[in-house]
Amino acid sequence: MKFIHLTDTHLVADGGELYGTNPKQRLRQAIAHLLARQPDAEAVVVTGDLTHHGHAQAYAHLRECLSALTLPVYPILGNHDSRVVFKEYFPGVAQDEHGFIQYSVDFGSHLALFLDTNEPGVHWGVYCETRAAWLRARLAETDRPVLLFMHHPFFPIGIPSMDFLSLRDPAPLLAAIAGHEARIRHVFFGHIHRPICGQYRGMGYSTLRGTNHQVALDLHGSAQCIIGSHEQPQYAVVQVDAEQLLIHVEDYLDCDRQFLLHEMRDGAAGLK
Ligand SMILES: [Fe+2]
Questions:
Q1: Which end of the chain has less Cβ packing within 10 Å, N or C?
Q2: How far is the CA of 158 from the centre of ligand 1 (A)?
Q3: What are the protein's GO molecular function terms (predicted)?
């Protein structure tokens, strides 16, 4: 199974600029790039902050951009999104019995679980007992390996301002996954706008830069100030099978200055 991880597209209603760059243009460039370079990808996941203000016209722009993809797209909500407006523009995306945008998909031999951490009116994440009951039920249905997708991380990532806005109370989620950690092979998240990978309680995790603006590596700053940056946007190429989970990150606006580094003529003897 090979899929593309996009995150934090932050589209705006007028299709114009946000923080000095154009999120719609940059998403279009990402999609054109991945279609050209990763034609064997089987799906695209977008881990939230699909829009910047949750405006209807921004979701219309998103739908227009994603229409260029012929492969399945699996979006979830971030803190900048509107669940109500999202449903109007993406009625085909599954939701749980309580209306949260939560659903499961078969990713090869893995069960992919997409979680909803959006809470209207706040920027931190919420994963309440109601949502956690859905997750607990999905995990109880199978003993297959699991991939989790969510916007907010449920563990600290070391940037004080972003940790202030992570999952506010991780207890319901941690209780739902208790005993299943060994088969949760990876947690894919968004929100941080930076490339990060690691492990938490034995579960691998990763995120990456958004497609528009980024967050600076500010490990000693204030919890009250998020420092932005204009580092290159990214998408990730993920391959997962029974033996390995492999993630490549592509700076898709800054990878065309390529050159022949070395040509192998007769194996190691030709190396200099
Ligand atoms: Fe974001």
A1: C
A2: 17
A3: 3',5'-cyclic-nucleotide phosphodiesterase activity; metal ion binding
Q: In angstroms, rounded to a whole number, what is the distance separating the alpha carbons of residues 154 and 117?
A: 10
pLDDT bracket for residue 193 (50, 70, 90): very high
CATH number for the domain formed by residue range(s) 2-250: 3.60.21.10
How much is the mean pLDDT over the chain?
96
pLDDT at 57: 98
Distance (angstroms) between ligand 1 centre and the Cα of 131 equals 22
CA of 124 to the centre of ligand 1 (A): 11
Q: 262: CA distance to ligand 1 center in Å?
A: 39
- Domains of the chain, residue spans: 2-250
Rounded to the nearest whole angstrom, what is the distance from the C-alpha of residue 271 to the centroid of ligand 1?
44
% the chain with pLDDT above 70: 98
Ligand 1 centroid to Cα of residue 207, in Å, is: 12
Reduced 3-state DSSP string for 77-142: CCCCCCHHHHHHHCCCCCCCCCCCCCEEEEECCEEEEECCCCCCCCCCECCCHHHHHHHHHHHHCC
190-209: average pLDDT: 98
- List pLDDT tens digits, range 35-91: 999 999 999 999 999 999 999 999 999 999 999 999 999 999 999 999 999 999 999
Cα 8 to middle of ligand 1, angstroms: 5
Distance from Cα 5 to the centre of ligand 1, integer Å: 14
